[in-house]
UniProtKB/TrEMBL annotation:
This is DUF3817 domain-containing protein. Residues 5-90 form the DUF3817 domain. It comes from Flammeovirga aprica JL-4. Keywords: Cell membrane, Membrane, Transmembrane, Transmembrane helix. InterPro entries: DUF3817_TM. The chain crosses the membrane at residues 6-28, 40-63, 69-86.
Amino acid sequence: MTGIKLIRFVGLLEGISFLLILFVSMPLKYIADMHEPNQIIGMGHGVLFILYVAIVLYIHFTIKWGYKNSIWAFLASLIPFGTFVADKKIFKEFDK
C-alpha cells in the first residue's frame, strides 16, 4: 500500500473515531455516566491519531509533499470532519 493510499485509509478511520468520540462516547460519558465507551473509543482514536501524524511526516519526507500540504493534513486531523475534507482536497490529488 502506497503512502497516499495508507493516509487515505487511516484518515478515514481516524475521522470516524473522532466523530464517534464527539457524538457517541462523550454524550454517554456526561449524560448517562458511562465511562467505558469513552475509554475504549478514546484509546483507539489516540492510536489512529498518532499513526495518522506519523504517516503525514513519512509522506512529507519521502514524497517531498511540501510544508503547505503537510500542515493542512495535520490541521485536518484536529477538526471534526477535517480528514474527510483533506481526503477530497489533498490526498485524492496525489493518489493517481
